[in-house]
Design goal:
The structure holds 2 protein chains of 2 kinds.
Chain A (H helix, E strand, L loop, with lengths): L4 H13 L5 H4 L5 E5 L3 H13 L4 E6 L3 E3 L4 H5 L9 E3 H8 L2 E4 L2 E5 L4 E4 L4 E3 L2 E4 L3 E3 L24 H11 L5 E6 L9 H15 L6 E6 L7 H12 L3 E4 L7 E5 L4 E4 L6 E2 L2 E4 L3 E3 L1 H5 L11 E2 L4 E2 L5 E3 L13 H20 L7 E11 L2 E12 L2 E9 L8 H21 L4
Parallel strand pairs in A: 1-2, 1-9, 2-5, 9-21, 11-12, 11-17, 12-13
Antiparallel strand pairs in A: 3-4, 6-7, 7-8, 10-18, 14-15, 15-16, 19-20, 22-23, 23-24
Helix pairs in contact in A: 3-10, 3-11, 7-8
Chain B lengths: L4 H12 L19 H9 L17 H13 L6 H6 L4 H11 L10
The chains are: A alpha/beta, B mainly alpha.
Amino acid sequence: MSLSRRQLLQTALAATLLPVTGPASAARRKARIIVIGAGFGGATCAKTLRLLSPTSDVLLIDARASWCTGPFTNLALTGLRSVASITRHTTDIGRAHGVRTLIDEVTGIDPVSRTVTTAGGKQLVADRIVLSPGIAMRWGVIAGLSAELSGSMPHAWLGDSQVQSLRERIDAVPDGGTILIGAPPNPYRCPPGPYERASLIAEHLLKTGRARTKILIADAKDDFTKRPLFLAEWDERYGAMIEWIPRAKGGEVARVDTTTGDVWLRDATTPIATHLATIVPPQQAAAIAGRAGLVDESGWCPVNPQSFESSLHAGIHVLGDAAIAAPMPKSAFAANSQAKLCAAAIAAALDGRPAPDARMINTCYSLVAEDAAISVSGFYSAASGRIAVVSEGVSPLTAPDGLRRREAAQARDWYESISTDSFGKSA
Amino acid sequence: MLLTAPRLLLAMSLIAAGAARPVIAAAHVARPPLSPLAQSCQGCHQPAVNAATMPALSGYPSARIAASLRAARDQPEPGSIMARFAQHLSNAEIDSLAAELGKPGKAGARP
């Protein structure tokens, strides 16, 4: 593959950003930085480190050679996109950003010596580690559900083969059947995700002659992001197809039987018989974060939000879903924005320059139909160890003419832009 | 981009100096790296995509970007995402972002 004009420019830029060095710094060893996780957070961090710290040696590690993006998973589930179109390949990402990649599972991190151990037998020592490992499901809360058994009630929340299998399961639900979406308690990856899923499944059912099928959302919460917007859109577009059961009305999923499809809600004596249950379990930081001593009692990683350096171990940064960064949501765009700040903070520290201004953005679109979307956006700043909201907002409840359609076009441009920014152009 | 004589000379000197590749857009080489916030703007306004609804900004004069941000802040259109972002931006912050993301030039200049 020949280098693009953009890559040539970046290489030239990197060359000219080399500091004018004297003998002392010329002799300084290259900083070794290991980035664990090649998703929106890790890939963006590796890319930005290459740009801002061109003398550093950056290695990007991911356990998976390919995976699906969380954003637009719901479109792939309902035929609006192909699964291939939302799939990314770790080695392509490395090539796009000029970063070495390693496909291997990180089995341990010694946070004091900053040694990374992999399943493939590598022991890698780093000067700085960036961990952007995503989430793990918290099994054992919903009875009858485990990692293996969830294959029969697929969450498709981890970008793996459950995306394809859930897509096929949705297509197999008969007209008049029952689909149940289990929505998890806060905090979790992608707050509007279950509700976008309900919206697009409903539209898909209508388009495929299955208007009598019911979608129940069994929620462990009493509220969710953009709730008035979703409820209004469901009412207008899908009539009585979608029923949201909040926690206060006993909506929390307590137990499942993955062989029969039965789902017991909290306090229910009889189960709901489903043709398809997609249960999104409660979540926590990915297991490697816990093994590395980077989580607190909440199961998530406390960090200094001006650099995303761990509050528990110096020299290790945690960003994206695994980090505690409220009020920023656990979203792909937030991970991308945090990664840029983290990389800038690391580069500044390595060069002895002042820390960068800690300001970050989140923008998320949710499709309520193929040609209608709503959005949430936030502008954040971090100081004194806390993240503050500079401004936050959602689409208006009463949409001016054509707004939902315009936002759907923006949603597609947004996906293309944030994916290309994070991963480079896809094939 | 045009390979003008000054750019060609710069390219040749960089090749002579052992740079990995010849420079194509020499005019942009001297710019410092973007701040994290400006980089985050590029999450949507991604130069490599230049999407219709969220175009690349480096082709627009900084003064025009600043004017757009001030309009988004002061005459917000209902439902506009940029209005939500610009809401609490000061003039100094707007000018700073615009200077980072755009190109020097008059507000009315075409991209």
